[in-house]
Amino acid sequence: MTTTEPSKPESGSGLTVVVALLVNAGIAVLKAIAGLITGSAALFAEAAHSVADTITEVLLLTALRRSSRPADRRHPFGYGKERYFWSLMAAISIFASGSVLAIAEGIRSLSGEQEQTRPEVAYLVLGLAFVLESVSWLRAVRQIRREAAEEQTPFFHYLRSVDDPTAKTVLLEDSGALIGLLLAFLGVGLHQLTGSGVWDAAASLAIGVLLAVVAYVLGRSNRALLIGQQANRRLIDRIRRRLRERPEVEVVVDLLTMSTGADRVLLCARLDFDDTLTVGELERACVRIDAELREEFVELDEIFLEPVPRSDPELRARVLARYGRMP
């Protein structure tokens, strides 16, 4: 049996993305201008970095808008996974628009000695960019910390397991941006001190590698969600506990979950009910269990309750193959 709820209201993800978009767009222009004035490869790499981050924010806003559409005939489980797809595209953008260009700029700079001019402009722009990026970074940290506190989960554990990639993407790209700015500052400074453009080029290459790592981490987490990652382990354990407490349920034979969007979970529970229940009593028990689960666990978007015998050999074999043991 299933029931579909309307899409849940968005959290602060939209504002977090908009703040990051405005910050990165402005910083990209400043870095590009500073790169032209100073001839710094690291600044050009950082300009590419900010362009990639700006494209990322546009993709994340697209994800927020498209994933909020209600379920329809063609997509009965809704469009929640649109968020994972566009977040995966954002990871690809970071690699293609940021990492590749930064590495290419570093290689180009190594092939010919680059003259450094007016390094004070570079320091000014990098310092301003660090302040602005910190504003966006703090916004993302506060949002994730608030959500982790609501879930009563440690910050880093929540960051690893969260099914909403939006704030996580902003946090990781802003963290990468702050590290990239420090690398650029180091490259410009060492170039000025030594007179060798190798340091500037090395900073550009390091920024490119950094962006590749950020893109890989984001791509891997969104890949898992797109494939069909199970819900948070704590949520699953709480649901299992509630089902076991129901007097009509003798055994929870199997519990399948899948994240279908941010804070949206599909649940399939295979239950061995009391054999003395009549068909009518079984139907009413399923209705009650469904309603109670929805009331307690707002994340549950679709619920399927399947009465099964615990002794069925084929079902036991599938459960053992999946978990290695019976739940």
Automatic annotation (TrEMBL):
One GO MF term attached to the UniProt entry: monoatomic cation transmembrane transporter activity
Pfam families: Cation_efflux
Keyword line: Membrane, Transmembrane, Transmembrane helix, Transport
Stretches assigned to the Cation efflux protein transmembrane domain: 17-226
Localization of this protein: Membrane
Protein origin, superkingdom: Bacteria
GO biological process entries: zinc ion transport
Chain ranges passing through the membrane: 12-37, 84-103, 123-141, 177-195, 201-219
Predominant location category: membrane
SUPFAM superfamilies, per database record: Cation efflux protein cytoplasmic domain-like, Cation efflux protein transmembrane domain-like
NCBIfam families: CDF
Listed name of the protein: Cation diffusion facilitator family transporter
